[in-house]
Amino acid sequence: MKRILFPTDFSEVATNAFVHALEFAKQVKGELVLLHTFEIPVYDSQFFPENFAIIYNSLELSKFEMFKDQIPKLREIAKERGLDDIVMNHRLMDGDLVYNMKKAIKEDNIDFVVMGTSGISGWENFFLGTNTDAVISGVEVPILCIPGESEFKKVKTIGFTTRYREKDKKELRKVLAIAKKMNAKIKCLYVRTQNTDVSDATIKEWEADFKDEPIQFLVLPCEEVKETILDFVLYKDIDVLAMIAYKRSFFESLFHPSFTKKLTKDIAIPVLIMHEQ
């Protein structure tokens, strides 16, 4: 059974993403591990040594009580959607979110992460923030990012961007396995620029390798890669966009505020981040 890590701060954005996580768990026949992290403020014990432990214990207890109060609400959401049979485990951890995500992924043998991102600022903070490098480079499992504006709907088409590298083929197979569980098809996009180094022979080789699979290959000549990806999602009815985290600079470019505004406003769809191995 697949194990899905769902980090949550119990916000509206996270609650919306929880619906996606539930449905994803249903489709891949998985179980959820709900992770809530909190950071205890740093105090200097020399100023109040007698109350030092009390302060920490009271803060931790308040976080636990809040966590305990929120769990039944999530279970009620699952029940309303007829998904209360999905197994849900819980982790309450203090400390840095990214560090705790890595720890949970390792200790709980996590296969996927599903998490919410809040609008334009959320995309910026996640993809361009100080934690981004750690997430992309340190979390080796696929991450399904859910914009706060994204309402759940049945996934019929998954978009996959590629550079036709051999490493990409491995990730495409992983996305294909997910697509089959969802009974979805894949549209594979390559944006061909003047500086392209991909031969027609390579493209035909890929088409031959996946000829019996529900995959359509599209090669679009254009110098504006980001805009072409946006048009691809918008006009090809893409429900989830799968992308490989090649390197940080690519995401810094792709999720620049001007582009992100268009992405979240016009097409608030989940983005599935794959990690090259």
UniProtKB/TrEMBL annotation:
**Gene3D superfamilies attached here?**
HUPs
> One matching Pfam family, short form?
Usp
| Highest taxon of the lineage | Bacteria
Q: Where is the UspA domain?
A: 1-147
Q: Show the InterPro entries listed in the entry.
A: Rossmann-like_a/b/a_fold, Universal_stress_UspA, UspA
Task: Write out the similarity annotation.
Answer: Belongs to the universal stress protein A family.
Q: What is this protein called?
A: Universal stress protein UspA
